[in-house]
Amino acid sequence: MKCVICKFGETRPGTATITLSRDGTTLVVKGVPASVCANCGEEYVDEGTAARLLSTAEDAARAGVQVDVREYIAA
Questions:
Q1: Are residues 27 and 56 in contact, defined by beta-carbon separation less than 8 angstroms?
Q2: Using one digit for the tens of pLDDT, what is the confidence trace for 22-65?
Q3: 74, exposed or middle or buried, with CB in 10 Å at 0-12, 13-18, 19+?
Q4: Pick from 35, 53, 57, 64: most CB atoms within 10 A?
């Protein structure tokens, strides 16, 4: 797909490091499957992956986690 940020690059399969923060909880997930722009490096995750990341972040916040760094594990 054409990158919506730079308007020039095409995205290619790759991985991203996603950081989610809210109410004192910071969750960093490495190795998340993403489409990455070859020109500017913008990263796009699909809807299913985003939902899974948000659910994981909610679980961490409920558990009282302040900072957590995890490796993405496919379902």
A1: yes
A2: 889 999 999 999 999 999 999 999 999 999 999 999 999 999 99
A3: exposed
A4: 57
- Checking if the pLDDT of 75 tops 80, the result is no
Structure tokens at 44: 């796009």
Residue type, 47: E
**Cα three-residue angle 15-21-23, rounded to 5 degrees:** 160
Q: In whole angstroms, what is the distance from residue 26 CA to residue 56 CA?
A: 11
Rg (CA), the chain: 14
Number of CB atoms found within 10 A of residue 60's CB: 19
Name the pTM for this structure: 0.89
